[in-house]
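Re: that chain you flagged

S.,

Sorry for the slow reply, it's been a week of failed gels. I finally had a moment to sit down with the sequence you sent. For the record, here it is as I used it:
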Amino acid sequence: MKVIIAVIAAMATVMSVSSCGEIVTLTYWVQVDEASDNYNTNLYLQTKVSKEIDIANGQNTFFGSEEDAINWFNGKMDYLGSKEFADSDPVPVLDGTTATFSLRTTHGAADNSAVSTDSETVTTRTVTFQSSSSL
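Prediction finished late last night. Pasting the structure tokens below so you have them in one place:
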């Protein structure tokens, strides 16, 4: 009998602990915070980057946990700084062309579906763009 009570108590403890770690899901997006002069004057590169991060494209927002959103963000940043990105639809890029991007979210939005001006930065990352090998 004592064993059964101990097992039930242990199960209740495990269930209560696991329910405390509820995963919060929010909407996340990427925006440009700062950029080098080379980036600011390169409209071709800005347009190309916008295709990857523009929130008007539903594929460029993420809905999920913060940890998963940071992984998603880092994947996007890795791609933007890659030779693969540089060689896809090549545009001229000068050495030293950088931009700092932030992963942003709205905490406490009622439906969490729209990007608002009341947002907070989760993390930032600076990307150095590569020039295309075909230019």
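What I noticed first: DSSP finds five helices and four strands in the chain.

Talk soon,
D.
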